Amino acid sequence: MGRVVMGAGMALLLLLGARRVAAFQVVEDLRPVSLGARCATEAVPGPEMRIVQRALSNPRDPEVVPPLAALYDSLASEAEVRPQDVEVLFQLAVVMGARSEVSGGRTQLEWAERMSEVAGRILDLEEDHAGAMHLLGRIHAAVMRMGTLKRWLARTLFGGAVLKEASWQEAGRYLEAAAEASPCNPDYRYELAALYRDTGRPDRAAREAQRALEVSAVDPAYEGVARKARILLAREDGGQPESR
Fold first, then answer.
1. Cβ of 25: how many Cβ atoms within 10 Å?
2. Of the ranges 74-78, 91-95, 123-127, 233-237, which one carries the lowest mean pLDDT score?
3. Helix residue ranges, H only, 45-129
4. Is residue 112 a contact partner of residue 139, using CB atoms and an 8 Å limit?
5. Where are the beta strands (DSSP E) in the chain?
6. Suppose 182 and one of 63, 116, 130, 166 were both cysteines; which one would form an S-S bond, judging by CB atoms 3.0 to 4.6 Å apart?
7. What CA–CA distance (Å, rounded) separates 139 from 5?
8. Which of 221, 225, 191 is nearest to 51 (CA)?
9. CA 61 to CA 35: how far, in whole Å?
10. For the segment 66-116, what is each residue's pLDDT rounded down to a tens digit?
11. Which position has the higher pLDDT, 218 or 145?
């Protein structure tokens, strides 16, 4: 079974810390201000989420599994006590995504489905939660990027509702909404760029990749996202303008 959920890429996974959008400064003299400058106060990964970051950067390293499992156990216990706390649920969903990334085969798919269920619970509690929308968008996109046979197997033999109903349309709806709700998150910007690339919209892909570069400059923790954005821009350079 091919890798399903996040690809090397759950990289810094959307949140690795911050979900909320930093307040943009009012520019009284109306001079242009770069997106990167406006996002300079965006929160960066906390110590617990650094465990996730390490796992996503080295998914085949067996040493990342024990601390990730311990973090999951801790968050799962906290979620039982605080089932309405969207921040706890979101961190739990992110860790589930990381566990899917370091797993394989059916176990990977099971973690992906569990993550999507928690993301759905979050949206029931807070319908505009950028992180939950981003997670669901990534799952839809990941399934659509699979080969025909692997996608059929994932949907037919192993998948729950999200895997079976995955589409580029839903991926775009979620990823665009997440980037709009939290414009200072570089991973949200990059994944939207990747969606545009894979659905034949190179101009939009280049625009979002450039924005991902700008906002990732606020902290070295986002270097992985910046690297992917630079690669995407290099590959799109010279592409034909989109017709729509």
1. 11
2. 233-237
3. 47-57, 65-81, 86-101, 105-125
4. yes
5. none
6. 130
7. 6
8. 221
9. 35
10. 999 999 999 999 999 999 999 999 999 999 999 988 887 778 888 988 999
11. 145
* Helices (runs of H) and strands (runs of E) counted in the chain: 12, 0
Q: Indicate the DSSP class of residue 15.
A: T
In the block, tokens 């949206």 appear at 123
Q: Are 112 and 148 in contact (CB under 8 A)?
A: no
What span, in angstroms and rounded, lies between the C-alpha atoms of 124 and 171? 18
Residue in the structure block whose two tokens are 């190179």: 202
Q: Who contacts 220 (Cβ-Cβ below 8 Å, separation ≥6)?
A: none
Residues in the chain: 244
Task: Report d(CA 152, CA 49) in Å as an integer.
Answer: 33
51: confidence class by pLDDT, cuts 50, 70, 90: confident
Instruction: Tell me the per-residue pLDDT of 170-211, one tens digit each, with 9 for 90 and over.
Output: 999 999 999 999 999 999 999 999 999 999 999 999 999 999
- Radius of gyration (Cα) for the chain, nearest Å? 17
- Measuring CA to CA, how many Å separate 177 from each of 82, 129, 130, 241? 27, 9, 7, 24
For the chain, percent helix, then strand, then coil, each to nearest 5?
Answer: 70, 0, 30
Using DSSP's 3-state secondary structure scheme, residue 61 falls into coil
- The band of 6, judged by pLDDT with boundaries at 50, 70 and 90, is very low
